[in-house]
Amino acid sequence: MSTLKDTLNADLRAAMKARDELTTSTLRMALAAVRTAEVAGAQARELSDDEVLAVLTKEAKKRREAATAFADAGRGDRAEKERAEGEVLDRYLPTQLSDAELRELVAQVLAAGNLGGAKLGPAMKAVQAAVAGRAEGARVAAEVRRQIAS
């Protein structure tokens, strides 16, 4: 079993003992998403830490999008619950890059790979590998487009 999945299970048990309903329900949802990803495809398999991290990143993004949708619809109570669930998931995700750090990292990768005038695809592939989940894809794409255009 992956160490991140072990951590999620241990934290779930601790939250259940502490009767922390928000953390318990959020971790149950996250572990269910991990199990779903494990059985997806032709054969069930154990996910690596990076794959578990990718599942958690998707779930956190879903929470942010749902919070925005609920807030726009005037459902502040549901939006707050989604934000709180997102905060629980954020504990397991790597620290996000600031705008300045992202700008610098993109510039370094583009310069190192001579991708200054390149098309978006190869540049994004190189930058995404360097970012490794520390920034949302939309932020990365916007910065790559900005630097390629200039």
Can you describe what's shown?
The chain has 150 residues and is mostly helical. The protein has two domains: 3-90, Hypothetical Protein Yqey, Chain: A, domain1 (Orthogonal Bundle), CATH 1.10.1510; 99-149. The protein is built from seven helices and no strands. The radius of gyration is 18 Å and the shape is globular. The N and C termini lie far apart (46 Å).
Overall, the morphology is globular
Sequence stretches where pLDDT stays below 50 over 5 or more residues: none
What is the typical, i.e. mean, pLDDT?
A: 89
Number of strands: 0
Biggest β-sheet, characterized?
Answer: none
Provide the descriptors you would attach to this structure in a database record.
150 residues; mainly alpha; Hypothetical Protein Yqey, Chain: A, domain1; 2 domains; 7 helices; 0% strand
Question: How are the elements arranged and paired?
Answer:
Layout: H1 3-17, H2 21-39, H3 49-72, H4 76-90, H5 99-112, H6 120-131, H7 137-149
Q: How would you summarize this macromolecular structure in one to three sentences?
A:
Helix content is 75%, strand content 0%. The chain is mainly α and 150 residues long.
